Amino acid sequence: MDGFLIIDKPGGITSAEVIRVIKRGIRPKKIGYLGTLDPIATGVLVVAMGRATKLIPFMEKQDKEYDALLTLGAETNTQDSEGEIVNQADPSHITEEQVKASMAKFVGEIDQVPPMFSAKKQQGQRLYTLARQGITVERKPVRVNIRSINFIEKNGPMVRLTATVSTGAYLRTICHDIGNDLGVYGHLSGLVRLSSGIFRIQDSISLDSVTSENMDAVRKHLISLADGLGHLPMVRVIPHAIEKLKAGVPLGISDVIEYVGDVEADHIRIMNRSGELIGVGNLEGPPMAGFPFSLIKPKRVMGI
Predict the structure, then answer these.
(1) What are the backbone angles phi and psi of residue 116, rounded to the nearest 5°?
(2) pLDDT surpasses 80 at 137
């Protein structure tokens, strides 16, 4: 079981609990996940199994798309509906036009202060650990990119929106900040992750379907190592190059059969003739012999 599963995470449980359920259901040798989802959230949780766990570091900086529900009129200590209300105001005078204008202020590169109830670390401790002890610490703003925020509908104090954001951005903080900008407070009351990089909710499998009795369906939904890194450019190499990679030796142009993709990418997929992923590397050196590089330095070898 080497590959990725897109789990349609149910609400009310943590991402770590999803992993425990999968371990009990199909007992993979190794397992991990990308992009923590809060208990309130549902939707795309990418789970890596077997050798796919080695690829997690090359997949974390990908945009994510969400369908979110913002409730105006109340601020909570967690910035979502699971927290305690700490401030309230009447939002009945807020119009759709005002909401749209406020949303527009948060599109683009912005400095976002991580919420106290988050998994970010400060001085070696998770912020949520401190928050549960009643401790609030000063957090440095993090530069994030809000690619888009789209207004869907408004029904009383409830505002539905979709957003595409970079890694590290918090939708509940966006909701909190929009509420403050409107002067009536606000918090996140519903969240569905629609996609994470190339992984889409349309291709997901439900958590309760991941059982040993349902392995045919699990395998059908399993995404290969190569496809899981589909956001990266690709280089196809000759058979002899595999031994060089195993020895940690950089590959040269003479090892390359084909190159496809963007040279500006951080990493590159290294594939054999059959299209199997044999490693991940970095492109280095000046252009040579029609290729936009002269060396491929291995970063991770998959052991084929």
Answers:
(1) -60, -40
(2) no
Domain boundaries, position 282: 232-301
How are beta strands 186-196 and 205-206 bridged, if at all?
Answer: unpaired
Whole-number pLDDT of residue 119? 67
Query: Looking at the 3D structure of the chain, how many domains does it have?
Result: 3
Length of the chain: 304
Asked whether residue 76 falls in the same domain as residue 188, the answer is: yes
Is position 38 annotated as part of the catalytic site?
yes
Contact between 269 and 228 (Cβ < 8 Å): no
pLDDT of residue 198: 94
For 284, phi and psi rounded to 5 degrees? Answer: -140, 165
The one catalytic residue in 38, 67, 177, 255 is 38
Query: What is the per-residue pLDDT across 177-208, written as a single tens digit (0 to 9) for each?
Result: 999 999 999 999 999 999 999 999 999 999 99
Please tell me whether residues 78 and 105 are part of one structural domain: yes
> What CATH number is attached to the domain comprising 296?
2.30.130.10
Whether residues 68 and 189 share a domain: the answer is yes
| Model pLDDT for residues 110-132, shown as the tens digit of each residue | 999 877 666 666 666 666 666 66
Per-residue confidence band for 133, with pLDDT thresholds at 50, 70 and 90: low
Cα angle: 63, vertex 66, 70; to 5 degrees: 135
Residue 125: both structure tokens together: 């401790």
**Alpha-helical runs (H) found in 106-251:** 127-132, 171-182, 215-221, 225-228, 240-246
- Tell me the whole-structure pTM to 2 decimals: 0.90
Per-position DSSP letters for 228-282, written without gaps between them: HTTTS-EEEE-THHHHHHHTTPPEEGGGEEEEES-TTSS-EEEE-TTS-EEEEEE
Give the CATH number, domain containing residue 138: 3.30.2350.10
